[in-house]
């Protein structure tokens, strides 16, 4: 009798475990709590099974809620303290719901697995709870554009994995917290790439200990606060820094003398402070494109000598900086210059506008100076402002220069060659003349690389970038429209661009489409073109989607039906549980069989060794690539095609799918996977997983956003690589190859090095890719291996081609060809001419390629001093020596490129890595040391 009772209890336990397996009870309770306190929850939120019944915005894994993505859905109400029950939650995105109010409950600190906390553009208030510091796995923390007050919690310093910290546009006050040995602080965030803390009420000094050489920050935004004291010299240690905004504070004292160590800096805003002393020394800051140091009290001085050295400069704003003497005509020689604002200074004498100024120069503002004479050697077509200069008191035809004209920069997306149609209701006509309800909002760009705001080309590029991103994430977007009108009146303001996103194939978006678009913009998945700097987005409420909830009577009917069916459900679930368990076992067996298939050709050899590499089902990859659609195709070759995909977390991946006729045998495919699973280096594209199912051979890699070096050199990707960036690309690729040759176990020869297989990430760091032809060399094989010649014509080592002896020097030869491509932007074989022979013949005659500018790519920066060019050419020609024994090893190549970069005044250890990287280079170790890498 006891045994029967125990069996009955066991059956009851199994039944109710099966019921709970659909959605864990604690998760369901938490979601019900949210549903009860929020208004405008999705109409699909009915029924007892959020994971199995399609509650929109709720993502589950193994019956546990792992994501809540409800961006721009019109939610109103506070956050529930029952959030802590969602113990498996990884992503919480409630951005752009202005109706969400009140404080963040302290219990949020119990969500130990949270990776993304995104509450941007809501109406939350009160202090940020210090329990956020308990979210040890957090990568993205975006709380911008709310009403948070109080101090920044020091506990945020405990978030050692944090990449993105955005607290912009709140009411935070008090000091910036730093650690003191007991209390944590922001200085502990050594993996963070972004400090966005602007537009608050922060006070006190910028603590010197906030910055260190161990940091990999690329954005520091502290603008629009109440910070005092001096700029700490430790800021000059953060050499990866690309964007610096500390304008709009009350900073005083000297600009640190080591400021020009920030050689990767693109945007620098020091304006509207109380800085004193000499003008900052910007010598060597060759990537600077936008400089604003206006409205400070610097010592009076003539134009500094570094003006003409800033070859990337588009915008120079030095209003009210006590500049004196003759106008620095050398500025006009800068090739990319668009805007010069030197108003309210003490410049005097003549203004000579010669023939050397850039055609891009649209504005010269010299109001309130002492200019007495204007000499135009040719008509200047831009805007010249000379009001309140002595020259305006002289009779002559200068009225257009002496009358202040207001900026009228505007842009609006034009219709695409279609007949406008009248739209009914509140619908709007898209650029393709289709009536729909667009999703709208505003993009706030915190910095720009340009100042010619009336140039439509820039906005066209932004539109193309947005559409590419929407399509790559398989979002149902037909087109986008951008609008701005009199966008900014001062350089310290953010550029506001109104965005309309039109739905594809329908007149309105559903909730899933809206929240997916919101997440792409709130989670910074969308990376704007390099012309546009960091941004944030604020979405508008999507009125068309908002629907009234079902009546209470309908809810009662549903509950009665559910309650009346519960007994039958219990009985059925017992059988479902058994069937579910059986299918899980079958899937496990099937999963295992994929690995065993790889071993069949190895006569029962060892199990595949793929530590750190995942297995993907074909069904998953079809879902991630929209069934391998043409829209997702990003590359192709003899092996097959490469598709862009997106994981449920939003992470992008590149999926290489082999053609049937090019597939390897099972053993070779297994070997390639094992090979790639062992190599981990920041300059090598990482293998994330594979699929070996239904006759498919598929490899899944990390996605590298800026395409190949080949695309950049050809102009296809619209990425400009000047001399310094090319040196950095060469160094990165060389380091990756040297790692394969020296530290991989066993050593690996890539065998297909070419510009098409060197990819550039979002910060233009080089990553060697495509290891399909790679060959490991065991100790038993000596220094070479006899093998069939494979590779790409023009890059193949001639010695390897003749003898079939493959060595590391074969990769060195191919890399030498890539170095020549970097110099010339020519294909290895073009119009029957071989680049190696062409350059060699030229060098034999003149010993200096710079005397033959027709060989050099104009985009490299001709007309400037290309320091180290001769050494780079000499190194490339040594790499392509006919005999392998005459070529250097890759470790030697790395060292020589480092020396060339030092000669060109660039620190070779400075890399702008992608936001997903979590490593830090250190000067104490060799750049090729395996411990230098990340997994």
UniProtKB/TrEMBL annotation:
Reaction(s) catalysed by this chain's protein: L-threonyl-[protein] + ATP = O-phospho-L-threonyl-[protein] + ADP + H(+); L-seryl-[protein] + ATP = O-phospho-L-seryl-[protein] + ADP + H(+)
Transmembrane segments: 556-579
Region of interest (Disordered), ranges: 909-935
UniProt cross-references to SUPFAM superfamilies, sorted A to Z: L domain-like (SSF52058), Protein kinase-like (PK-like) (SSF56112)
Subcellular location: Membrane
PROSITE patterns membership: PROTEIN_KINASE_ATP, PROTEIN_KINASE_DOM, PROTEIN_KINASE_ST
Record InterPro entries: Kinase-like_dom_sf, Leu-rich_rpt, LRR_dom_sf, LRR_N_plant-typ, Prot_kinase_dom, Protein_kinase_ATP_BS, Ser-Thr/Tyr_kinase_cat_dom, Ser/Thr_kinase_AS
Residue ranges annotated for the Protein kinase domain, each copy included: 628-901
One Pfam short name: PK_Tyr_Ser-Thr
Polar residues bias spans: 910-919
SMART domains linked: S_TKc
Family: Belongs to the protein kinase superfamily. Ser/Thr protein kinase family.
Name of this chain's protein: non-specific serine/threonine protein kinase
Lineage: Eukaryota, Viridiplantae, Streptophyta, Embryophyta, Tracheophyta
